[in-house]
């Protein structure tokens, strides 16, 4: 771990001082972060900032992709509850300081219903601003992004991973089932525009002060994706089986989820487009998250894909043909041949 006196911290502070013509000192840190060592620093006049130094060289590029999307949202200036990117380099980045305390868990025993609703009202505004950047942009909309193609690519990445034998990602046949049933969860409304997806929001990403939201931090996972892939409730109230929320076992937040959707609907000025996608998001979010989290994958397979009727396997054979046609490099793979042999036996 990079200590407050490490060469990496000293180098970052020196570079920052030169760039902003000011002196900076570490106040606190390192603080736990997924991809970064995080420090609270202050300038000579006492203004506070957040210094983030990547834990590995590859993490810097990943985080900078997320910060690019944070800047995209900031350009809209529709909300003040976001950190500002002060300086961004390949070795460190500096953001404005968001005052308050992060939520450690979305827990009904520790947060009253009124407190949770106040936070959700503020969070609805932040997320709505994030989702609608391309719809509001004065520079015009972004290139259209088709959700069906995006989701098919995500499923195929999972299928390739399973065919390659990646540990814990289950049976390749289940990804063919997903391909076959994908059409059932595609939104019926227009979904060709791009939207900023925050990523896997957790309570620690939500900073509160008093009874309300102070800001949303940690934008490393943010990416530009098709609207239906972005517009979901925060994971800690989404009710996705297998996701660890930090709340006591058996504590659910379906009413909070419904309240959040209602809060968004009250500010949705795009003919209900965002509200409709949010209301119909559960099956999409469950499938999408099953491709990124092993525990959710296990739950998805158990709840959605088992036991598999013969029709599933007939459809899976057709999907395997389509997959191979789209991924020529996999055509001669032994794992593909074994999968085809299994399916032929299942439908015989």
UniProtKB/TrEMBL annotation:
<dbReference type="Pfam" id="PF01636">
    <property type="entry name" value="APH"/>
</dbReference>
<dbReference type="InterPro" id="IPR011009">
    <property type="entry name" value="Kinase-like_dom_sf"/>
</dbReference>
<protein>
    <recommendedName>
        <fullName>Aminoglycoside phosphotransferase domain-containing protein</fullName>
    </recommendedName>
</protein>
<feature type="domain" description="Aminoglycoside phosphotransferase">
    <location>
        <begin position="32"/>
        <end position="224"/>
    </location>
</feature>
<dbReference type="InterPro" id="IPR051678">
    <property type="entry name" value="AGP_Transferase"/>
</dbReference>
<dbReference type="InterPro" id="IPR002575">
    <property type="entry name" value="Aminoglycoside_PTrfase"/>
</dbReference>
